[in-house]
Amino acid sequence: MEALAQCYQASDTWEKRRQILSIMADKVRFTKLLRYIPCLTNYRFTDAKRHCLTYGRGGPVKSSRASRRDITSSQIKHFIAFITSSHIVQDLPFGERSITLSNKETIKIPNVMIHE
């Protein structure tokens, strides 16, 4: 128990700590674990028990990396030109709107209607 508590204290990420804690969480009560790991919270203990039920005792979580897609400035310019083109945006024959900025400057813009 002391060895697992030392491993828990030495780990640098919560994912590793949760794995180590899930080894003990379903066998030992929360109050007994507090003697070995005084900074343990009830939330983390419950999360480790849930981890044990979901992935197994000490099981690793398969992490999926979210990838981002780079967009070139020419693609952005094309998109802006498309959404502001006459195919999408049509000026209304009446009126203007006044928008007040946070610095109290007022800007007048024409009313537009977006066609779908």
Describe the protein.
- The protein contains 5 helices and 2 strands.
- It is α+β, with helices and mostly antiparallel strands and 116 residues long.
- The longest helix is centred in the middle third of the chain and has 14 residues, at 42-55.
- Helices cover 46% and strands 18% of the residues.
Put the structure in a nutshell:
With 116 residues, the protein is an alpha+beta fold.
Structural class of the helix and strand makeup?
alpha+beta
Total count of helical runs of at least 4 residues: 5
Q: What is the beta-strand fraction?
A: 15-25%
The ordered H/E elements are HHHHHEE
> What is the radius of gyration?
28 Å
Total strand segments: 2
Helix percent reads: 40-55%
Spell out the blueprint of helices and strands.
Elements: H1 2-10, H2 14-25, H3 30-36, H4 42-55, H5 73-83, E1 89-100, E2 106-114
Antiparallel strand pairs: 1-2
What are the defining features of this structure?
single chain, 116 residues, alpha+beta, two-stranded antiparallel sheet, 5 helices, 46% helix, 18% strand
